[in-house]
Amino acid sequence: MDYSEQTPSNPEENNNTQNSTAPKLPFWKSQSAILIAAILLAGGGFALGYGVGHKQGLTVVGFDQDAQELSEIVAKQKSALEAVSVSLNTSTQERDVAIQNAKELNEALGLANQDKGYAQSLSATYREKLRERGGLSLTIQNIKIKPLPSNAYEYVLDLVQVSPSKRRAVGRVEIRLIEGNEILTVPLESSNFNFDNFERLTGRWTMPSGFAPQFIEVHLKGSGDAVIQRFAWRRGAKDVTSSAFLGEIPQVAADAD
């Protein structure tokens, strides 16, 4: 039996043949793990860098905003302090002026009190002289009428009496307005008088519409004879013409009470 000689196969040739026949993989597939790791590393670094930069940017922006707000607060406080300073200076000046005015008023009040004391002393001296000469009977020293809004008027009536026996003047007063034959009695707030040497009566009344007095007449009814004095009413004038001043008051008889 004829056997043919078989040559044993070479393993290297077999490997080469297998390698040449097997398909080759792309580079990116063979290195995919390394590429993924690199991408992840790069992405993480980018994210980390962005986060740190963003935080730093926010920190700078927040610092600038806080600095601006602080500057505004300081400016407001400065303005408030300036206003307080101005107010304090104004108050100090007003206080100084008030102190000076109070000082001047006190001095003026002191002088007025001195003048008042001197006038009272002089008046007392004159009254004693009048008593020595028989005194002064009840009379009207002065009358004044002042117009007010709404057709109202104010009267001021000064009465005087100096009695040798120092008897008080007690009685009633009546004021009349005269226009031709028409007479109007003025309603008085107090028609009674009671004084030693001097008394001032004041009050107000409303003039009837269309009434234009020509004269004003004052009646005094005391313990002695009645006193009647008439004064001219000057139209358009603020005051009533009065001729009864202290120097024009007639002297009474020496036997007056």
Please characterize this protein's 3D structure.
The chain has 3 helices and 8 strands; from the N terminus they run αααββββββββ. The protein is of the alpha+beta class. The chain has 2 domains: 105 residues; 114 residues, Immunoglobulin-like, CATH 2.60.40. Strands 3, 4, 5, 7 and 8 form a 5-stranded antiparallel β-sheet that branches. It has a 3-stranded antiparallel β-sheet with strand order 1-2-6. It is elongated. The chain starts with 10 loop residues before the first helix and ends in a 25-residue tail after the last strand. Keywords: Membrane, Transmembrane, Transmembrane helix.
Q: What structural class is derived from the secondary structure elements?
A: alpha+beta
Q: Give me the number of helical elements.
A: 3
Helix content: 40-55%
Low-confidence stretches: 1-7, 14-22, 241-257
Distance between the termini: 204 Å
The total number of structural domains is: 2
- CATH architectural type of the largest domain: Sandwich
Outline the biggest β-sheet. 5 strands, antiparallel
Query: What is the overall shape?
Result: elongated
Mean of residue pLDDT values? 74
Keywords: Membrane, Transmembrane, Transmembrane helix
Region (Disordered): 1-23
Biased composition (Polar residues): 1-22
Transmembrane segments: 33-53
Secondary structure elements and pairings:
Blueprint: H1 11-21, H2 27-30, H3 32-132, E1 136-148, E2 152-162, E3 169-179, E4 182-185, E5 192-195, E6 198-206, E7 215-221, E8 227-232
Antiparallel strand pairs: 1-2, 2-6, 3-4, 3-5, 3-7, 7-8
